[in-house]
Amino acid sequence: MFGYYLDLAWHSLKRSPVLTALMVLAIGLGIGASMTMMTVLHVLTDDPMPGRSSQLFTPHLDPLPLNYKQGDDSPDAADNVTWPDAMALLKAHRAERQAAMAGGTLLVRPARADLRPFNVDGRFATADFFAMFGLTFEYGEAWSAVNDAARAHVVVLSDTLHRKLFGNGSGIGQDVRLGDHDFRVIGVSADWQPKPLFYADPGAQHYSDADQFFIPLSAAVDLKLSTNGNQSGWGKNNDSTSLTGATMTWLQFWVQLDSPAQVQAYRQFLVDYSAQQKALGRFERPSTDAKLYTLMDWLNHENLVPNDVRLQLWLALGFLFVCMVNIVALLLAKFLRRSSEISVRRALGARRRDIFLQLGIESALIGVAGGMLGIVIAQIGLWSVRHRPDDYAQLAQMDIPMLLGTLALAIVASVVAGLLPAWRACRVQPALQLKTS
Amino acid sequence: MQLRPILSTLRRHKLTATLLTLQVAFTCAIVCNVAFMIAGRVQRISVPTGMAENTLAVIESTSIEKGQNQQAQHTADLAALRGLPGVQSAVAVSYSLPLDQSEASRGTCPSKQALDRAEQINSIEGSGCVQPAQYDGTPGLINTLGLRLVAGRDFRPDEYVSTGKPTVAIVTRALARHLYPDKQALGQSTYDGDNYIRIVGIVDTFLRPNLRNPGVDDESMIWPQRPDSSSVLYVLRSVPQDRQRVLKAAAAALLKANPNRLIDPQRMQTYTQIRAKYFQRDTTMIGLLLASALGLLFVSALGISGLANFWVQQRRRTIGIRRAIGATSGDILRYFQTENFLIVSFGIALGILLAFALNLTLMKFYELPRLPLYYLPIGALLLWLLGQLAVLGPALRAAAVPPVVATRSV
Q1: Residues of chain A positioned with their CB less than 8 A from the CB of B313
Q2: How far apart are CA B383 and CA A322, in angstroms?
Q3: Smallest CA–CA separation between A39 and chain B, in Å?
Q4: What pLDDT is recorded for position B294?
Q5: How many helices (H) and strands (E) does chain B have?
Q6: How far apart are CA B28 and CA B297, in angstroms?
Q7: Beta pairing partners, A140
Q8: What span, in angstroms and rounded, lies between the C-alpha atoms of B204 and B150?
Q9: Do residue A26 and residue B302 have CB atoms under 8 angstroms apart?
Q10: pLDDT at residue B286, as a whole number
Q11: What is the b/e burial string over A394-421, where b = at least 16 CB atoms within 10 angstroms of the residue's CB?
Q12: What is the pLDDT of residue A239?
């Protein structure tokens, strides 16, 4: 029966080719626009650390004084951590792994004569950074807590920067001049660029930035290397601008917790820590303000998806909706026009269910064609998104689930659009129709 | 033209007519709001900076030499740049130009009393103090940028300082009005907590590096202060078509004068490029909004004419009968046109309500202003026109149905 209905549908569609083409075009445009924007949203809200993200958390303390006024445009000062707090959390060692970090840009002065000095972005971090985030090493290894304590001038380079500085040779053990100091290369990590760069400061370009070098945080603070990102201070004296002062937030802090029990315990630890700081007179806000964000909750909190992208998605969905209403109206008119044909089939013994199935298949056929067109249009749409200069542009690629989703959405949309007309058409009174025609 | 027969026919096609009405309504609601958003974005991207934009080009230089006398280097660089063919004038600013993102702003008060008031309420709001963007630059800034001085004068050479704060400043008209709402701003002294700074000139417009909201976007002040950091922005003025060539020559000249510096190719831009980059998201959005509005109108027209086509085919026999009993082809044409007018009108009526609902939602989530009323009659007119155009073809075909059809059996 299915083959027969398919054949019938094909003939019916062929009878009015222009109209069929227009319906396919309408559904294709609607689906294409929606899928383009859904894909963009999908890649923007994707998990940057699949398999690991559920174990990564960032504590959120609130050391701000009660009368601190948050600027309208500036990021939340409590999103970052102060140096004393970060050091206290590190020392407490209550998590499986923990690391404090901050971004920095340094001038590289290559030893090679054919390379001009250039700026690179990197990270000042503590030892657990590598194991916690799962960086893999091409050569050498990460530094240890001992190096942290010694404020050692060591550096881990990314594969890209290593190649740029040393060609195909090995740079392990050699010195690299970063800023005004020499750092000994102890490791080369495989290129590492989670998208978004979840651990970066709220002001970073989360989808395009990548770290090219890693230096012990203690050494960076010791050498007073300048950091990227938001530094918010509220102290009265020099304390508010000193990196190690208690009244300026500038560090990011991440912990790895493997079990729900650990998470629970760490939450309690943060509240206890805040209460203790409050008792000491350092914190002024309620100690229950201390929070522990999961990685995905943190990204949500940071609100990395530009408002424009959401607006564009709504626009595309609105467009799809109008296209759907349009197709429902056209299919209804088309099916009702065939009332007499349907009546003859009904009189010859076809059940309502058969008519419904036949017309349903006809609408699904339009849906499949529309879906195919939608995929093509979505690819064109994504291609144009990739040519925008936004930092997320390069991510706009359709993966297999999104591709299948497009097709499914198109078929579901058109079958839903065909339901009402098919239901209405299979309820025509055969006797009446046969008499009047 | 009698409406009764049309209405009774539509009642027989209730479902189809309702669907078409709904489609028109949604199109009306979305298109009105989209048009409003487009207007908002267009207004945003066409904000004037007050500068002679198409004559300016910018190149950033960052010194990587320790302990160098930066200002001596800037002076030497400027001399080299001014000597380039095509360069009419050149100045150095420390890092900022309008729409170039990185902004220095500082609290400035019209008087010491206002500052005390601000400290008392721990807020700048309501104290009379403001947060203007602060620009600096080497002598000749006003002329090189092409700013229009509307009162007072440019800085005198002896007013420029190399370190510390100057004693005079030039402000924009908007800032002058905000600081001194009811007196002449020229000659007044502003207070920033440590120093009094006298206003010696007022320029018409000089936009902020980073837009905030239209009320304060044009509040800037210029200090006669020479840049003193390792990173400096050279602004070059030339005829528009020379700018790219001038930039290339400038990069070469700067590296020749002192190779110990970084020149980021990304930061060698004509001002037109800086502006385009700042508003790039808005221009993308305008394109998308425009495309979706046109797409919606197209799909609606498609639905209207497709449906009219069906109805004409379905009613061939009845049309023939009407013709046979005396209706002219003009009557038939008008019948379909009126029918369409009715459906579209219902759609518009519903669409106006939907447009407001949609606008309220957008206001809530996207901080959009309220939809002005005049968008609605324009939207309605557009849809009526579109409907009539879409129905014209099928209606003409209907009018061409000969009376003889009535006598044939189908």
Answers
A1: 337
A2: 15
A3: 16
A4: 92
A5: 12, 11
A6: 9
A7: A187
A8: 6
A9: yes
A10: 92
A11: ebbebeeebeebbbebbbebbbebbbbb
A12: 59
Q: Number of A:B CB contacts under 8 A? A: 99
With b meaning 16 or more CB within 10 Å and e meaning fewer, what string describes A324-356?
bbbbbbbbbbbbbbbbebbbebbeeebeeeebb
Mean predicted confidence (pLDDT) in B270-283: 92
Instruction: Give the minimum alpha-carbon distance from A128 to chain B in angstroms, rounded to a whole number.
Output: 33
Is pLDDT of B123 > 80?
Answer: no
Q: Indicate the pairing of strand A154-158 with strand A181-189.
A: parallel
> Angle A378-A384-A389 (CA atoms, 0-180°, nearest 5)?
140
pLDDT recorded at residue A215 = 95
pTM higher than 0.90: no
- B285 in reach of chain A (CB within 8 A): yes
Total residues belonging to chain B: 410
pLDDT above 90: percentage of residues in chain B: 54
Distance from the Cα of B165 to chain A's closest Cα (Å) equals 21
Residue A190 DSSP symbol: P
What count of Cα atoms within 13 Å lies in the side-chain half-sphere of residue A96?
Answer: 15
Structure tokens belonging to residue B148: 């229009």
CB neighbour class for A149 (10 Å; exposed up to 12, middle 13-18, buried from 19): exposed
* Residues 6+ away with beta carbon under 8 Å from B399: B329, B330, B332, B333, B336
As a whole number of angstroms, the distance between CA B275 and CA B211 comes to 12
DSSP states of A210-241: ---EEEEHHHHHHTT--B-S--EE--SSGGGT
Give pLDDT < 50 ranges for chain A.
437
pLDDT at B410 over 70: no
DSSP element (H, E) containing A340: helix A339-347
- In this prediction, residue B193 has a pLDDT band, given cuts at 50, 70 and 90, of confident
Six-digit token string for A75: 């990021």
Give chain A's end-to-end CA distance (angstroms, integer): 28
Residue A20 · residue A334 · CB < 8 Å? no
Indicate yes or no: CB of B34 within 8 angstroms of CB of A326. no
Residue B390: which pLDDT band, with cuts at 50, 70 and 90? Answer: very high
Of B128, B215, B137, nearest in space to B179 by CA: B128
Q: Give me Rg for the CA atoms of chain A.
A: 31
Alpha helices in B49-165 (DSSP H): 70-82, 112-121, 141-145
Task: Sort strands B268-270 and B56-63 into parallel, antiparallel or unpaired.
Answer: antiparallel
Return the closest-CA partner of residue A178 out of A235, A125, A104: A104
Q: What is the pLDDT of residues A396-437, one digit of tens each?
A: 888 888 888 877 887 788 778 888 888 888 887 777 766 654
Task: Determine the pLDDT at residue A72.
Answer: 62
Mean pLDDT of chain B: 89
Q: Which ipTM value was assigned to this complex?
A: 0.81
